[in-house]
Write a structure and sequence with these properties.
11 helices; mainly alpha; 0% strand; globular
């Protein structure tokens, strides 16, 4: 082979390598970057909240950081902590909420926290206070509305929730009749609330009032046809759901 031809072949190979090597290097860089990004994302995923409850806790904590004076965020965080069984965090969050307000909702939230954590006896006085304050706050609202044109007075939903919560605590403390009275009053305030009606049925079953229990369960199913507690209650009572 002539010498000049060999030089041409060598030059051609070098030129080809000059073109291929950057491409290979770029491809390797992409592979390395993808691997690094995947590793970072995997590591972050290990620390990420895995359940909806954990995500709620992260969400409410972030909301408090952005708006520390918003009472509802503190109360929602306290409830989430209690549901997660984090007693000290829940009670500390309620304490911070009390620094913002002394409203009935704060008493109710603390009562719910204590009951969820197994301290129904300690929760009961707070439920009593929430019931009292909820009525007082509602009365003040009605006074404020007197000068306005309103077709219907708003129901005292907060009082109904306080009665509903207190009924659960009373049942856990063995005071079945008082718990039924609270739920009956709550149902009068919110007559279309299926949860209250179903709870009333469950409490009546405990007091051996099967007829009254079935009536309450049927009432719950009128508003929520697939209400689980009501359906299970009817089954226990030996009655076929409609």
């Amino acid at each position: 082979m002539p010498l000049h031809r060999k030089h041409q072949d060598i030059d051609h190979d070098v030129s080809l390598l000059d073109r291929v090597l950057p491409t290979l290097a770029g491809g390797m860089l992409v592979v390395v970057l993808v691997a690094a990004i995947s590793l970072v994302m995997y590591t972050r995923a290990l620390d990420a909240p895995r359940t909806s409850l954990e995500r709620d806790i992260v969400k409410y904590r972030a909301a408090i950081e952005q708006a520390p004076s918003t009472l509802s965020n503190h109360l929602l965080l306290a409830s989430s902590y209690a549901t997660a069984g984090r007693k000290e965090d829940a009670l500390e969050t309620v304490r911070r909420a009390r620094a913002l307000s002394d409203a009935a909702m704060v008493d109710l939230t603390e009562a719910e926290v204590l009951r969820l954590l197994g301290s129904s006896a300690e929760a009961l006085p707070l439920y009593d206070l929430a019931v009292q304050k909820a009525q007082e706050e509602h009365d003040r609202t009605l006074i404020d509305l007197r000068g306005r044109t309103v077709t219907l007075e708003p129901p005292n939903a907060l009082l109904a929730r306080a009665l509903q919560g207190r009924a659960k605590a009373l049942l856990e403390l063995g005071e079945i009749q008082r718990s039924i009275e609270d739920l009956e009053q709550a149902s009068q305030i919110l007559p279309t609330d299926a949860d209250i009606l179903a709870a009333l049925g469950t409490h009546r079953i405990r007091s051996r009032d099967v007829t009254g229990a079935v009536e309450a369960f049927m009432g719950a199913l009128r508003f929520v046809p697939d209400h689980r507690e009501a359906l299970e209650g009817l089954e226990k009572a030996g009655v076929t759901a409609p």
